Amino acid sequence: MNNTEALDTAGLDLTLADAQAIDDCWNRIGIHGDKSCPLLADHIHCRNCSVYSAAATRLLDRYALQQDAHRPHAAMERGEDVITRSLLMFRLGEEWLGIATRCLVEVAPLQPIHSLPHQRSRALLGVANVRGALVACLSLVDLLGLDDTTRGASGGRIMPRMLIIAAQDGPVVVPVDEVDGIHAIDERTLKAASASGTQASGRFTQGVLQWKGRSLRWLDEAQLLTAVTRSLT
């Protein structure tokens, strides 16, 4: 199921407050409304619009959080003492990575990046407009030393995103190829991944864990944010 198809299914288990928090413009001025939306002429159907896709992503993220929230309770009923950490899972090229949500401000739709003259850092892509404010935009590919030749979609309908993260001197934006969502990971799994060693795992890596049949790099957010600050000075 892709993001745009999820609006009619994921929303079934959401609370009324969650549903009301999302502006369902497709039901008012879109294909299911009076069709007065000026974007319809270009997109033909609301499911082709970035506003619709962004709303679907928000619904899926909330649904994932609710599902993850049920798992620790189920373990507690079995008498297990479970402690979890919340990680955002995302993709760069062919590599999946996870980062602690405590350093995440928001997941936003992809915005145009405006380059800057005389940039001092290779990782600094330029600036992006975030709600009217210009925010520095950095390349995680460069910061993490990834292979740039593998960038792009891995198949299916993929929606690139921008992660807004809280750096020392203010928020910065990093574009990513895909966001899977926020997941609660058992701390024992993370400790095992960290204990397995990170020598061959790459820059700013706390460990590697198996997740959804993939190898996922768990990033050390403290080291990464230090590198972000260094790239901006």
UniProtKB/TrEMBL annotation:
Swiss-Prot/TrEMBL keywords: Cytoplasm
Localization per Swiss-Prot or TrEMBL: Cytoplasm
UniProt xrefs under InterPro entries: CheW, CheW-like_dom_sf, CheW-lke_dom
Domain CheW-like: 84-230
Protein name: Chemotaxis protein CheW
SMART domains: CheW
Broad class of the protein's primary localization: cytoplasm
Any one Gene Ontology cellular component term annotated for this protein: cytosol
UniProt KW Acetylation keyword: no
One Pfam family linked to the record: CheW
GO terms of biological process kind: chemotaxis; signal transduction
